[in-house]
Amino acid sequence: IEDPKSEELLNSWITDDMDHDKRFVYYLLASKGVCVVPLSSFHSELEGFRVTLLEENEMLLEQTFTKIKEAVLEYCD
Q1: What is the rounded CA–CA span in Å between residue 26 and residue 75?
Q2: Measuring CA to CA, which residue among 74, 53, 50, 75 is closest to residue 62?
Q3: Is residue 49 within 8 Å of 65, Cβ to Cβ?
């Protein structure tokens, strides 16, 4: 996370007993500025996140999904 303020905020959100998908969603928001919803918020037994995009500009859609891909790779590394 490049921005120290974002990293500080992220650290204030994270708890030891937090669902893994929620932890990733917060990381994605702090590191890439992309907001998605963790599946655990829907009382799902699946871990992951839900994406809803209303953007019609293909370039912006590609940029957003590229940011998500980068965050997944960084988070899992």
Answers
A1: 11
A2: 53
A3: no
For residue 38, list its beta bridge partners. Answer: 49
Q: What is the pLDDT of residues 9-65, one digit of tens each?
A: 999 999 999 999 999 999 999 999 999 999 999 999 999 999 998 999 999 999 999
Q: E strands within the chain?
A: 37-38, 49-50
The rounded distance, in Å, linking the Cα atoms of 66 and 44 is 26
Picking from 56, 2, 62, 4, the residue whose alpha carbon sits closest to that of residue 32 is 2
Question: Could you count the other beta carbons within 10 Å of the beta carbon of residue 55?
Answer: 10
Q: 């994270």: which residue's tokens? A: 14
Q: What's the pLDDT at 77?
A: 85
